[in-house]
Amino acid sequence: MSKEIVNPHDKLVKQLLSQKELAIDFFKEALPQSLVSHIKFETLTPLDTSFISQKLEAYYSDLIWSVQMNDRRNLKISILLEHKSYADPNTAFQLLEYLACGYLKQRREKRKPEPIVPILYYHGKHNWKFKPLESFFQDYPDSLKAYLPTFLTEYVNLHDLSAEEILKFRNGLISSALMIQKYFHYPQHLSSHILSILEKLRPYLHSNHIESIFVYLGETGLEDSVLEEAVKNLPNDMSARVITLREQLFSKGREVGKKEGIVEGISKGHERSVAQTILNAFDAGIDLPTIRVITGESEEKILHILKQNCRVV
User: CB count, 10 Å around CB of 158?
Assistant: First the structure.
């Protein structure tokens, strides 16, 4: 199983797409219609598994879904979230390893192999044209290309999606999250779309996910004045809800800060107490091994504190 995501961009996407109804709406946008028409999306089921190998943990996390086709055969849909903010030329080869791990896992579990449809999601700051594996072997004759393990990858690159295309997504939660992510590093561009983003969120203002989106929006560096101006142009019911959300998040932020400050104060107080105990013991002529037993601190730390306070050892 891949490690917990700490990247806020990937974390938001994974949180949203872990929900069945949101995943369905995303797949209908991200997958080609030729595949969508064969899928019974009501059968979509999240799997508590991963095809990520230990070597790939630094590069990706994944979400795995099982779904039936109209003919009742099953397949797997995998969303790979790209942790890196830059283009990695080895991605096609990493995907090959990922798919191999997925199919071997199915065989080890003695299950009938099911096709895995990989969706690679990239939101890095710089644009990146994904190169499929076969593109690395273009100078070889066609007779040799038949030996290559080629496969299709659905590639969702926010740089390739225009604001207009994203805003056409039927699900406003996904649309707004992708819009904020697309312009996360560009507050000026985000400012020009903030009203459209808020309007897309209107049907979801009491959703369990709305707070996460506003927290994420708050990390973009968007000036408060821009959001305040946008709120003035919203219908009354929506502007009131947005204001309430902002106040709740601000209040929660202050509480978290207060608690962190208390914990930090306790920690600093403990450190001062330990340091004073070490100094008092040393001044009383107690040797270092005994001071270690008394304080539970390492010899290195004890010597550091003594030297800091002009005690010659």
Answer: 18
